[in-house]
């Protein structure tokens, strides 16, 4: 049985979802120390002018080494409204935004206290829409050693790292993007870019069969 360890992630990139599809068991890390500028609270979408990073503000923890499970979402800056507007603006003309928007809109209306809960509920929604059923659970402790059948991608799937170097087995599969004529194909964006552009065929892209 193949097992993978992943960080919690906000509308994670396509690479992340290939792991949810490709492994028998997935552990989502809860006990890592929270670090800014990672996919834990950040996603990247395709805006009309190019890639756009959306970040969820968090409450500054009391201690420098605060476990992710204790990180709270901040209401600072009206971010829910800004994120929903950015997603609507970026994907309003995609083939499937209208079809899926009512599934996502509540996440930008309801207030979640903890980042991990928000990320997990969004991830489970995306999995149901893509029609994949990963065997996911949260970690109970921070693990530092792994067997031959276990892979650790907790820090390898990272917006500041080159996925081609960190994960040579992941090959982005080109698919239709609404701004492709202007921007060219943008690989490994947030899973919502794939979902809003490709709808039910998203799973075929993840499997590399389209």
Q: What does the model show?
A:
Helix content is 32%, strand content 13%. It is of the alpha/beta class and 210 residues long. The protein has one domain (3-206).
Tally of discrete structural domains: 1
* Continuous helix count: 8
Work out the number of β strands.
Answer: 6
| Relative helix content | 25-40%
Question: Can you tell me the residue ranges where pLDDT is under 50 for at least 5 consecutive residues?
Answer: none
Structural class determined from secondary elements: alpha/beta
Could you give the order of strands across the largest sheet? Answer: 5-2-1-6
Strand content: 5-15%
Q: How would you state the average pLDDT, rounded? A: 95
Could you give a short account of the major beta sheet? 4 strands, parallel
Listing every helix as H and every strand as E from the N terminus to the C terminus, the arrangement reads EHEEEHHHEEHHHH
Rg over CA atoms: 17 Å
Q: How many angstroms does the end-to-end distance come to?
A: 27 Å
- Please state the overall shape, judged from the principal axes of the Cα atoms: globular
């Amino acid at each position: 049985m193949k097992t993978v360890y992943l960080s919690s992630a906000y509308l994670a990139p396509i690479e992340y979802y290939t792991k949810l599809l490709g492994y028998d068991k997935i552990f989502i890390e809860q006990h890592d120390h929270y670090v800014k500028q990672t996919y834990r609270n950040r996603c990247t979408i395709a805006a009309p002018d190019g890639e756009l990073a959306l970040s969820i503000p968090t409450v500054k923890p009391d201690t420098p080494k605060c476990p992710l499970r204790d990180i709270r979402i901040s209401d600072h800056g009206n971010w829910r409204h800004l994120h929903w507007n950015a997603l609507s603006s970026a994907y309003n003309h995609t083939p499937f935004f209208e079809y899926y928007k009512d599934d996502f809109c509540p996440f930008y209306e309801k207030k979640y206290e903890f980042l991990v809960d928000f990320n997990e509920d969004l991830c489970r929604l995306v999995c149901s829409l893509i029609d994949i059923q990963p065997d996911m659970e949260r970690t109970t402790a921070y693990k530092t050693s792994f067997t031959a059948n276990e892979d650790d991608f907790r820090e390898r799937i990272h917006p500041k790292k080159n996925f081609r170097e960190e994960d040579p087995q992941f090959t982005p599969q080109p698919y239709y993007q609404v701004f492709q004529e202007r921007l060219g194909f943008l690989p490994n964006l947030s899973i919502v870019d794939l979902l809003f552009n490709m709808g039910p065929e998203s799973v075929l892209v993840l499997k590399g069969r389209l």
